[in-house]
Design a protein that fits this description.
By secondary structure, the protein is mainly alpha-helical. It has helices at residues 5-18, 28-35, 39-51, 76-84, 109-124, 128-132, and strands at residues 55-58, 64-67.
């Protein structure tokens, strides 16, 4: 499994917003400049975060985005599943995959399933606040 630029940048945006003044709307241009990310690329990520109610945005003068919950209430897993899908390491474990005809005889499915569960649990125990506070070891 490889996390795409979209997932990594979404995490960087969420961390950046968490580090700003609480309840202030932060212009994406400022986030883009601080993070060294193209504003155009951020403009493609933000609608998904907004539509899923992870951030709220205001357009126009004084507009921007802010978190809708405290940073400790967001998990890395939640953000990565939104931007990446379900993080399945193999196609047969993806949410909408058709049942594999070899599953009953598959010698590796248990390994992949356990790896998938471990990955989900790991990302679900890390919050945006943990990342802001360098609390992940």
């Amino acid at each position: 499994m490889m996390i795409s630029t979209r997932g990594r940048y979404a995490l960087r945006v969420m961390i950046d917003l968490a580090q700003q003044t609480k309840d202030a709307y932060i212009p994406m241009k400022q986030v883009a400049d601080r993070q060294g990310i193209s504003l155009k690329y951020l403009e493609r990520i933000m609608p998904a975060l907004s539509k899923s109610n992870l951030v709220e945005g205001v357009h126009g003068k004084g507009g921007g985005y802010r978190l809708v919950r405290p940073p400790e209430d967001y998990t890395v897993g939640e953000i990565l599943r939104l931007t990446e899908g379900n993080l399945a390491p193999v196609a047969c474990l993806e949410c909408d995959s058709k049942p594999c005809e070899r599953r009953s005889a598959c010698k590796t499915i248990a390994m992949w399933s356990e790896f998938h569960d471990m990955t989900q649990a790991y990302f679900d125990r890390i919050s945006i606040a943990d990342l802001v506070n360098d609390a992940v070891k």
